[in-house]
Amino acid sequence: MQYKIVELTCGLGNQMFQYAFAKSLEHHLQMPILLDKTWFEVEGKKHSIPFSLGLFNIDLPYATQEQISALKEKFNSFESKPKIMRSILKRVGYPRVARSFAFEYKAQYLKPNPFAYFVGFFQNPLYFKEIASHIKEVLCPPPH
């Protein structure tokens, strides 16, 4: 796997934390990190929250539908396997989904890891403390 994907969801504040986390992943892992904004593009969703991160001059590319589908296909295949097989695949580094809940910090996410798709809010400044100045620069409000 030559890239990792971070899902963007919810309001602008969450999108900003998710971007900061993605940028930190890029910094720590020295590999391409893509953003998945399809959460905002699914027709018939009950939310009316707009994708707002585009207000800023972000410098990470968006994942294509093909890249997202390829990863999700692997995850679905993984989940359908027997428990013992999933355990073995985890040990050999099979790509997986990483989940993060509000305010928690998982240092292992910023080190080489088998996770390929990141879902969560990543609302902990420890994730991006090493690149805080870049994050502040990029996420500066646009001029009027």
What report would you give on this structure?
34% of the residues lie in helices and 13% in strands. With 144 residues, it is α/β, with parallel strands linked by helices. The protein has one domain. A 4-stranded parallel sheet has the order 2-1-4-3, with helices on both faces. The longest helix is centred in the N-terminal third of the chain and has 18 residues. The protein is globular. The model has no long low-confidence stretch (mean pLDDT 85).
Short description:
The protein has 144 residues and is an alpha/beta fold. 34% of the residues lie in helices and 13% in strands. It has one domain.
Strand order of the largest sheet: 2-1-4-3
Residue stretches low in confidence (pLDDT < 50, at least 5 long) are none
What does the main sheet amount to?
Answer: 4 strands, parallel
* Alpha-beta classification: alpha/beta
Distance between the termini: 41 Å
Question: Helicity, in percent?
Answer: 25-40%
Tally of helical runs: 4
- SSE order, one letter for each helix or strand: EHEHHEEH
Mean pLDDT: 85
What count of structural domains? Answer: 1
Radius of gyration: 16 Å
Describe the global form: globular
Q: What share of residues are in beta strands?
A: 5-15%
| Assembly state of the chains shown | single chain
How many runs of DSSP E, i.e. beta strands?
A: 4
